[in-house]
Amino acid sequence: MFAYLEGDLTHKSPSLLHLLVNGVGYEINITLQTYEKVQQMDHCRLYTHLQIREDAWVLYGFADEQERTTFRQLLSISGVGAATARIVLSSLTTGELERAVALDDAKTLERVKGIGAKTAQRIVLELKGKLTAGKISGPGSVSGHNTTKDDALIALVNLGINRTAAESALSKLKDSSTLTVEELIKQALRAL
Questions:
Q1: Widest Cα–Cα separation across the chain
Q2: Alpha-carbon span 92 to 30, nearest angstrom
């Protein structure tokens, strides 16, 4: 419902923010990763996820789109709710989570409070190949990325195309570094 909210921070804690947007104060649940990025700010933009439950509407906020996307991917896993996803993203950065999944390192996930062996294995299994924080380039480093190509990939996935198929189609394109996002999407759709 809300893509993002931008406004003045009127209250900050490691798990909760109050964001004043045009006279309306929003209570937003956050991760520790987001708190570290916004704790020194007075004004910020948070990418949001609204969870509607029978008893409450709960708003979650993230300092960047990548963290929100990872949160939503965690929510898609059976047995992982919003509280668990938030704890995972408070304990691990998106890059650390991606490395753990790419390397089948369920032990890293088991160290997160509330994550048992079965849930850790399920997270690794279901997120394998879905996280796109960057390519593994060494033990503990995540490489930079081409935002134009990444934007095209996100758009293709949002159109309902399988991530692996979309990545394959984008990798087949010639001179992709000179194309705009729109041209990349069009050519990738033709290549599918």
A1: 52
A2: 14
- 10-residue mean pLDDT series, the chain (192 residues): 92 94 96 93 96 94 94 93 93 91 91 90 90 46 55 75 82 79 79 76
Whether the CA torsion 125, 126, 129, 131 is positive or negative: it is negative
- Tell me: do 75 and 100 sit in the same domain: yes
- pLDDT score of 139: 38
Q: Which residue has the tokens 């947007």?
A: 21
Q: Which domain holds residue 130?
A: 65-135
Cβ proximity of 48 and 5 under 8 Å: yes
H runs (alpha helix) in the chain? 32-38, 65-75, 82-91, 94-102, 106-110, 117-127, 147-158, 163-172, 181-191
